[in-house]
Amino acid sequence: MTETDEIKRIDQLREELHLHNYNYYVLNAPVISDQEFDRMMRELQDLEARHPEHFDENSPSVRVGSDLNKNFTQVVHRYPMLSLGNTYSQAEVTEFYDRVKKSLNEDFEICCEMKFDGTSISLTYEDGKLVRAVTRGDGVKGDDVTDNVKTIRSIPLVLHGSGYPKSFEMRGEILMPWDVFEELNRERELREEPLFANPRNAASGTLKSQNSAVVASRKLDAYLYYMLGEDLPHDGHYENLQEAEKWGFKISHIARKVRTLQEIFDFIDYWDVERKNLPVATDGIVLKVNSLRQQRNLGYTAKSPRWAIAYKFQAERALTRLLKVTYQVGRTGAITPVANLEPVQLSGTVVRRASLHNADIIASLDLHIGDMVYVEKGGEIIPKITGVDLASRPAGSEKVIFITHCPECGSKLVRYEDEAAHYCTNETACPPQIKGRIEHFISRRAMNIEGLGPETVDLFYQEGLIHDVADLYDLKAADISRLERLGEKSAENIISGIARSREVPYERVLFALGIRFVGETVAKKVAKAFPSIDALAAATLDDLIHVDEIGGRIAQSIIQYFANGKNREIIERLRKAGLKMEADPSLTAAYSDKLQGKSVVISGVFTRHSRDEYKELIERHGGKNVGSISRKTSFILAGDNMGPSKLEKARALNIPIIDETRFLDMINEE
Ligand code: IVH
After folding, report:
1. Of residues 519 and 635, which shows the higher confidence score?
2. Residue 244: how many CB atoms within 10 A of its CB?
3. Probe ligand 1: pick from 24, 41, 84, max atoms within 8 Å of CB?
4. Distance from the CA of 119 to the center of ligand 1, in angstroms?
5. Sorting pLDDT into bands at 50, 70 and 90, what band is 468?
6. What is residue 378's predicted lDDT score, i.e. its pLDDT?
7. Going by C-beta distance under 8 Å and a sequence separation of 6 or more, which residues neighbour residue 629?
8. How far from the centroid of its chain's Cα atoms is residue 474's Cα?
9. Average pLDDT of the chain to the nearest whole number
10. What are phi and psi of 528, to 5 degrees?
11. Which of 200, 201, 286 gets mutated to test ligand 1 (max ligand atoms within 8 A of its CB)?
12. Which atom of ligand 1 is nearest to the CA of 305?
């Protein structure tokens, strides 16, 4: 790679890792395995080390992922919650061991333990009582989730026995056992709720629930693996945990004190296989220098202790034959290639299909039909192909070439600039797109039409009863009840479900239309800015882009949607059918005209309302919120940390700066 290529790669990795961080910590829905994430992070760290001139204080490499949730009170950790150095290689375990040996220059013991794959927690006990449970957060401060944690039965609220310190902390991992996880996902599937990708996300999602009864019902478990405090009973970490067990803590019995590297490797090899029989998810082994005195001597780097390391297991993988590649067409026309495999056993289930994501991935794997391929399940539900065993490629085998035409309707596929996926653009006549749009329209978060599901949609489509979402409102009970699988009762249910959907508010109708890139949140923003479908249809690209958080891509997609005559026709039919095509006026009604003619700039961080709320208040009181300061600006609504350049400009133009309390007084006074 050249200098410029390396810089480009740094930017690319930063952008991707930010996104993966968000998927993992905010959405609780990672799309890549931890191992892949770690690999990318390492590549970034290496490249950044070579290019200090390209430093960025907000690079994903400088932050420890945060799970902070603004609805919980934040608490600063008495001792920061650091993470462990990670490795996948036995060579690095050897390096760790040699480093410890050299630094200590005396005998030492290593405590080998499982690395539990859940969400970490810090528990504070005072006078034998649990007083606080805090998540890891950003390592320095975390969320106070005490009420939720108290519902976890394996966590003692009051200690028994004696000899515990007056005040101390226990750290450990909150876990959702495999069987509970599988049951939970089965239930969610029935209710058409999004599934949790793995027990770790299910555990952390549950722990952040606003309702501790939900937490209680989810049957979480916890193992404690680290005691911190001033006057602990022993100098040995292992011995302290044994003591803690007597006080009522749940301690894993898979822990062993060893002295030699060989014993460490034996432990690793044994548990790499045996862990598959454990009731909870594990993703590696943690090695800790046992003596606390020796731990203090070894100390810490900025991010992790020098006295411990995590060895992560290779994701489980299997080798099997690629039989063929098929292609699925989604609601938006996006094409997903799917590998059809010779059935193979992988972490307890039989795998027959794996996602291939897109054409680039197929090309980079250089896949051929009949290849022996590696399938991995890195903690996620859908397995993927991570490599090809080239040595066993059959002679003369056929290379997998991505299709050029839609497998369902035969239209030529297109690939948009900057996108990895191929699309079938035959929106109005490609069956899976038609059915997909109807399924989206009726789904719970959209029109929420009870009694209808993917199978009934398929049946109605096959029978020629529906071709688009507007057809739903022309359905008659008699049309349905004559179908073989449905009786009069369910026909009536469906019809009344459809009738009730007429009450669904405008913003959800907007979401239900399935305009590309207009998800639930965007639909809300759009509905606020354009309170009727006619206003939206008349909006120009420029009007759209000026709405907060609507970028060019979304704006373009909305314009395209309304440019299509078929879509306008459907909207007209839906309007005639009685669907809400306007926002409820009370949501946008004016409060007063106190800010009439005023143009207001918002800057800084606020405590009493969010920025969006202030924007709304300004507008509902007749004012206009503008982005940048000019001579025409009436005043600046300033929170904390207003940017220095804005401050300077405001002073130069002599524009009043008003804080939030004064602003609220201003709009509230009679
Ligand atoms: S000890 C100073 N022991 O792994 C480090 N951590 O990357 C103290 N974890 O945040 C942690 N099993 O959530 C320790 N047996 C174990 C563990 C363990 C899982 C997690 C923990 C921590 C992360 C470190």
Report:
1. 635
2. 25
3. 84
4. 9
5. very high
6. 63
7. 601, 636, 646, 649, 650, 653, 655
8. 39
9. 89
10. -70, -45
11. 286
12. 2
Residues ≥6 apart with Cβ < 8 Å to 662: none
pLDDT band at 521 (very low <50, low <70, confident <90, very high): confident
Residue 627: predicted pLDDT = 82
What would the DSSP string read from start to end of 521-582? HHHHHHHHHS-BHHHHHH--HHHHHTSTT--HHHHHHHHHHHH-HHHHHHHHHHHHTT---B
Q: What's the CA-to-centroid distance between 172 and ligand 1, angstroms?
A: 7
Q: Which of 268, 348, 346 is nearest to 313 (CA)?
A: 268
- How many whole angstroms separate alpha carbon 336 and alpha carbon 345? 24
CB distance 120 to ligand 1 below 6 Å: yes
472 lines ligand 1 (CB under 6 A): no
Region for residue 186 given its phi and psi (left: phi exceeds 0; alpha: psi -120 to 50; beta: otherwise) = alpha
Which tens digit of pLDDT belongs to each residue from 254-307?
A: 999 999 999 999 999 999 989 988 999 999 999 999 999 999 999 998 788 999
Q: Which residues contact 386 (CB under 8 A, 6 or more apart)?
A: 317, 374, 375, 376
> Does 280 sit in the ligand 1 pocket, CB within 6 Å?
no
Give, in degrees to the nearest 5, the angle at Cα 618 between 615 and 620.
Answer: 105
Question: Is 150 in the active site?
Answer: no
Q: What's the CA gap between 557 and 563, in Å, rounded?
A: 10
Token reading at 50:
């070579």
Contact 224 CB / ligand 1 (< 6 Å): no
In the predicted structure, residue 659 carries a pLDDT above the cut 50: yes
pLDDT of residue 118: 95
pLDDT, greater one: 337 or 18: 337
Please state the pTM of the whole predicted model. 0.56
Measured in Å, residue 308 CA sits from the centre of ligand 1 at 9
Q: Report in angstroms the alpha-carbon separations of 459 from 441, 455, 481.
A: 16, 6, 12
Tell me the C-alpha distance between 526 and 518, whole Å: 9
3-state secondary structure of 119: strand
DSSP string, 478-524: HHHHTSTT--HHHHHHHHHHHHHGGGS-HHHHHHHTT-TT--HHHHH
- pLDDT at residue 67 tops 50: no
pLDDT tens for 199-242 read 998 999 999 887 777 888 888 999 999 999 999 999 999 999 99
Which one of the listed residues 115, 208, 384, 646 is annotated catalytic? Answer: 115
Determine whether the shortest distance from the Cβ of 305 to ligand 1 is under 6 A. Answer: yes
pLDDT at 670: 52
Distance from residue 115's CA to the centre of ligand 1 (Å): 7
Residue predicted with more confidence, 588 or 544: 544
| Residue 656 to residue 635: CA distance in whole angstroms | 5
pLDDT at 513 exceeding the cut of 90: yes
At 33 the pLDDT is: 81
Kindly report the protein residue whose alpha carbon is nearest to atom 21 of ligand 1. Answer: 120
Q: How many CB atoms lie within 10 A of CB 434?
A: 21
User: Which candidate, 69, 81, 214, 199, places its Cα nearest to that of 148?
Assistant: 214
Q: Can you tell me which residue has the tokens 């027959």?
A: 352
For a substitution probing ligand 1, which of 25, 64, 116 has the most ligand atoms within 8 Å of its CB? 116
For the stretch 489-501, pLDDT in tens is 889 999 999 999 9
Pocket lining: 226 vs ligand 1, CB cutoff 6 Å: yes
Q: How far is the CA of 452 from the centre of ligand 1 (A)?
A: 46
Atom of ligand 1 nearest to the CA of 136: 10
In this model, does residue 165 exceed pLDDT 90? yes
Q: How far is CA 610 from the centre of its chain?
A: 23
Answer whether 82 contacts ligand 1 (Cβ < 6 A): yes
